[in-house]
Design brief:
Largest sheet: none
Order of helices and strands: HH
Number of helices: 2
Low-confidence stretches: none
Mean pLDDT: 89
Shape: elongated
Distance between the termini: 74 Å
Number of strands: 0
Strand content: under 5%
Helix content: 25-40%
Length: 68
């Protein structure tokens, strides 16, 4: 019995949520904490900032640890 050439999936509207970060400080304050993933992402961006600007951004402290 032919299936009409369709894929078997019903067609219909799909809903997709699109997020935009309008105010990162406000969002972090509302969430009450910074997750490990967010912290690592901020530090990654801070490294990129340093490469472009020659200094760490305000709010980021760099220390050097040398060990054998």
């Amino acid at each position: 019995m032919p299936d009409g050439g369709g894929s078997g999936r019903s067609l219909g509207l799909r809903t997709k949520i699109i997020l935009t970060l309008d105010d990162p400080i406000k969002a972090l304050t509302a969430m009450g904490r910074v997750s490990e993933a967010t912290s690592e992402s901020i530090l990654s961006d801070a490294r990129a900032y340093r490469k472009l600007n020659g200094a760490w951004p305000a709010g980021v402290t760099a220390t050097t640890d040398r060990s054998v």
